[in-house]
Amino acid sequence: GGQTRRDRPSLRCAMRRCRPVVAITMALASGVAAASGGSLLILDPNGGDTWTKGGSYSVLWTSMEDDIALCKRVAITLLRNDRIAQTEETANDGAHLLYVKSALPTGGGYRLRVHCASPAALGAKLRGESDPFEVVAAPEAFRVAEPRARSSWPLATDLQVRWRAAPEFRGSGACEELQVLVMQLGKSTASDVPAASASVPSLGESETSIYLRPDLSPGEYRVRVQCAGDTALGGDSGAFRVAANAEALRITAPGPADACQLGRACRVAWDSDLAGRSPRCARVTGSIDAGAGVEGDAGVGFEADLAAGEAMVYLPGSLPAGTRYTASLACAGDDAVAAMSRPFRVDSAGDALAVSSPQAGAVWGIGVEHAVRWESSVRDTLECATVNVELFPPQAEGAEGSRGPAAAVPVRAWPGVPNSGEHVLFLQAGLVPGNAYRVAISCGGDPSLRASSGPFAVGLDAGALSITAPAAAAVWTAGSVELVRWEGWEGLREADSCAHVDVSLLKDEAVLSTARAPDSGQFPVYVNGSLPAGLGYRVAVACAGDPAVRAESDLFRVRPLPRAFLLTNPTEGAGWVPGQRYVVRWTSPLELSDVCDKVRVALFAEADLGRAGPGRGPAPA
Q1: Of 196, 223, 456, 609, which is the most exposed, with the fewest CB atoms less than 10 Å away?
Q2: C-alpha of 550 from chain center
Q3: What is the pLDDT of residue 215?
């Protein structure tokens, strides 16, 4: 009954020496020979077996003693001529995978002892030994197929390593991880120090790549593949050569006969034999730098695929021109693989941009549209496909640089304008008139490329607003509604400062009334009936948000109101009876007058009206 728990296939071994534990009971029942040497029966190894150093082998045991169920752990000891060679403990499950150390001496006289280790009191009762068997030397654990003997590998490339493990060591516990070492031959220093190395899991792995750093010394090398758990188990390649790599990376352009220009792309070209051979060099990084003799310390970097063979590097206008520029290049994964060009020339951007309008001394009116015009020799570049148009206010003498007033703050800006050579802009109201305004044009992708106009004047424009009604010598009637009409630039109406206007009626220099209205081009004005008749009247229209943008009409005349009220009830000849209520009705053109929102109705005797003097009213009844 104590044997059934061992009748399950619980071996952890993929070796050819492993035997199914399910065969244990069958072996006992059929009388298969097993080492007895005690109350524990050693089923494997058997007498006459051969174990190879560096291999892992199954150890099988069982017992007919009832106390076997009380034993939790057993000690497994490998003996040679009654001397302990190696020992280890494991759970008492009837099977264990034992690794045979490669340091053991070869030969016969080996036996395996198994005894109960926990509880220790059962150790003397539950123990057994196998029959003698032999331990033989290990063959070469790995056969390295690549690199091949006498092959040559250049520096800064990946060395391809391929190998095959001997069947005896597949699944060995010492070889769960492998070490791949690149060793240089003929060195006087310690030979166990690898020039390069890699660690790989053994499961399913039979190849790897090791990067040959460019700082390695050219010469003879070999590769060793060995087990990480037992470095004596391994295999070596034949000797191969690691050679210097003069063609790893070489810049072919620009050279001394070439010239690049600021504001344009400079072509950097290269040759390399690393394409497809070195993942660390799949991409390259580089720069174009100003060298000795160039003012300032400036440069521009770039990155590209190695296989592309070239890169177009834009040189911003902020770099200084000079004759000692160099281009440098390096592998993105290993900057020790690098190259540098010979010095070449970088010319200035020249007239990349030039403003032709407005010209110096021009006058721009506020509230109207104006055209900015410029010339550009870099219109075909991506960085200058669009430009920024900026208006700068008057500033202190010398504040503007040769490339435009970059230090000033623009009062108006129109960014992202197509580089077509012309842009029509609206000079919005709110600007302070002045005589030293400037327009600057700069590339949208490279603001250092810029140009500035000469100074010009900005002032009020007589044509921004113009009044079309009332016309000169017009006549307005007191108490009537008259229409004021005006015209302005279309852009002025769209400006926030002129979305509404103030319409004012003036007499000489006095403002009689003001009303705010949308900038629709017309507005009805009530002419107060109390206005004195005569000449000297004017109408003014001004932007509500910027009163400096205004227009005034010519002088016109206001005539008096011919009849302020017309009584329609009572009619002539009507009879009113004292003590009754009657309705008085009238019409008047002054019904909209702010001074006539209320009227006084009075009843007079006819005789009293006749006695009233001119301009005087009698006392009402």
Answers
A1: 609
A2: 50
A3: 85
